[in-house]
Amino acid sequence: MGWISTYEGLPHTTVKSFTISQQAGDWYISCSYEIEPQIREKEFDYVGVDLGIKELAILSTGLVFSNPKALKNAQNQLTRLQRELQRKEKGSNRRNRQRLRISKAHRRVSNIRKDATHKATSYICKNHAVIGIEDLNASGMMSNHKLAGAVADSNFYEFKRQISYKALRYGSDVVLVDRWFPSTQLCSCCEHKKPMNLSQRIYSCDRCGSVLDRDFNAALNIENYARRAFAVPGHAPDNRSHAPVEVSIEIDVISCLGFE
Ligand SMILES: [Zn+2]
After folding, report:
1. Angle at alpha carbon of residue 166, lines to 232 and 149, rounded to 5°
2. Tens digits of per-residue pLDDT, 80-135?
3. Which helix (DSSP H) or strand (DSSP E) does residue 113 occupy?
4. Rounded-to-integer distance, Cα 74 and Cα 149, Å
5. Which member of 34, 50, 115, 135 is catalytic?
6. Partners of 51 in the beta sheet?
7. Rounded CA gap, 19 and 118, in Å?
8. In whole angstroms, what is the distance from residue 211 CA to residue 195 CA?
9. From ligand 1's centre to the CA of 67, what distance in Å?
10. pLDDT tens per residue across span 158-183
11. Which of 129, 140, 173, 181 is most exposed, with the fewest beta carbons within 10 Å of its own?
């Protein structure tokens, strides 16, 4: 292939592996390498992260990461392209070209989602020493048809994966909250428990009178869970091994010559 120019500089290190792949008509090189963790001072000791359906993530510090608007637009475009495909004659060149357009649109949706997730997880891992996050059973939620689209969109699995490796990179600890922990049903002030159905967006406590946004209340409960996990000796997970962390990056080689 010869030399390839990259838009962003690469780290001066030995690459462990290369993977070359083709997606939607374009070529990619993905390489993985080891880097030294960048342990840094954190602004916050604890944070609870509630992964939303409406929002990307809500933090117990009050910060909200919204789903990007571009995602919705790209999805509308995808729906339109799909409809147009139905009208193209089977086996025709027009139909093949339309297929390529659709896969490019799919890739765009996935890139927008990935970008938003990367921004949120980097911020969380750089600025918080202990991160509580729900160990969501995403596949279980996927089987519920009403939720499926929204859940796939919110990218739960990818979010958790990024938090895990970035926590190693920046020296944070991750507490995975038990999937049966009733984070939405508890009052984050007094721990009173009451049933909450999906349509209830506000948690109002019958015992202490607290009134909180549903997801923010859940994030606070997750933070409390993480604090308790650290209060029990021997239960604190320790990610701070200071060992090199393996990361992988993807390089776009659209302009690469000689590949057909
Ligand atoms: Zn209460």
Report:
1. 95
2. 999 999 999 999 999 999 999 999 998 888 888 888 999 999 999 999 999 999 88
3. helix 93-127
4. 14
5. 50
6. 57
7. 21
8. 15
9. 30
10. 899 899 989 988 989 999 998 889 99
11. 140
